Automatic annotation (TrEMBL):
UniProt-recorded Gene Ontology molecular function terms: structural constituent of ribosome
Spans annotated as Disordered: 131-187
Keyword DNA-binding in annotation: no
Gene Ontology biological process: mitochondrial translation
Keywords from the UniProt entry: Mitochondrion, Ribonucleoprotein, Ribosomal protein
CC per GO annotation: mitochondrial large ribosomal subunit
Record-given protein name: Large ribosomal subunit protein uL29m
Location, primary (coarse class): mitochondrion
Keyword Mitochondrion attached: yes
Length: 187
C-alpha cells in the first residue's frame, strides 16, 4: 500500500494559488474577503426597509433587493459557520441582529408583493364586469364606448348649449370666456 502524502510544513515551499477576484465563491464573503468580521464591522449596517418604502419600488427594484438580501444572508451564514469552527467568542449577537433585519426586509418585500397580487385580482374582477375592457388578447384591451351628446344634458353643472363643440369633438371654452381672455391680454 502506497504511503499517504505528507503535508508541506515549510511556508516557502507552499504552492501559490491564484484565484480570480470575480470568482463566484467570493460572494459568500464580505467585501474585505475575511471569514469573520469584527463586531464593529458587523454592527455597521443600515435598518430594514419598511413596507411603506417597498410599496413605492418597481418590480425590478424589489427583485434586485430580494437577491441582495439572499446574498447578505449567505454571507452571514458563512460567517456563522466560521464562528462555530474557530470559536472566537464574539460577533454572535451582532450577526443575529443583522440577519433579523435582512429577514424583516424580505418579509416586507413579500408583504408588498402580496398586496399587489390582491390588487391585481380585484382589478381583474372589475375588468370582467366592465364591457369596455377586453382582456382576451384578441384586440385592444380598452374599447371606450362613444359618448352620445344628446344623452349628456349637462357638463360641469352647465347646460350643454353653453358649450360649443368643434367638428373633431374637442370641447372649447364658451364665447364669453374667450372674450374675457382677449380683454385681459389687451390690458
Amino acid at each position: 500500500m502506497p504511503a499517504l502524502p505528507q503535508p508541506v510544513r515549510d511556508p516557502s515551499r507552499h504552492t501559490q494559488i491564484v484565484t480570480s477576484p470575480d470568482h463566484g465563491l467570493w460572494g459568500f464573503f464580505n467585501q474585505e474577503k475575511t471569514a469573520i468580521p469584527t463586531p464593529e464591522e458587523d454592527y455597521k449596517h443600515g435598518r430594514a426597509w419598511s413596507v411603506e418604502e417597498l410599496r413605492h419600488k418597481s418590480w425590478e427594484d424589489l427583485h434586485k433587493l430580494w437577491w441582495a438580501c439572499v446574498r447578505e444572508r449567505n454571507i452571514l451564514a458563512t460567517q456563522q459557520i466560521e464562528r462555530e469552527r474557530l470559536k472566537p467568542g464574539y460577533g454572535e449577537s451582532e450577526a443575529y441582529m443583522r440577519d433579523r433585519l435582512v429577514r424583516d426586509t424580505q418579509r416586507g418585500i413579500k408583504h408588498a408583493l402580496t398586496e399587489r397580487y390582491y390588487a391585481w385580482q380585484e382589478a381583474l374582477k372589475v375588468a370582467d364586469s366592465d364591457p369596455e375592457i377586453d382582456l382576451s388578447g384578441g384586440g385592444p384591451a380598452y374599447n371606450p364606448q362613444t359618448l352620445d351628446t344628446d344623452e349628456v344634458a349637462t357638463r360641469d353643472g352647465h347646460p350643454q348649449s353653453d358649450i360649443s363643440k368643434t367638428t373633431s369633438g374637442n370641447i372649447q371654452q364658451p364665447e364669453t370666456s374667450k372674450q374675457s381672455a382677449v380683454h385681459r391680454q389687451e390690458l
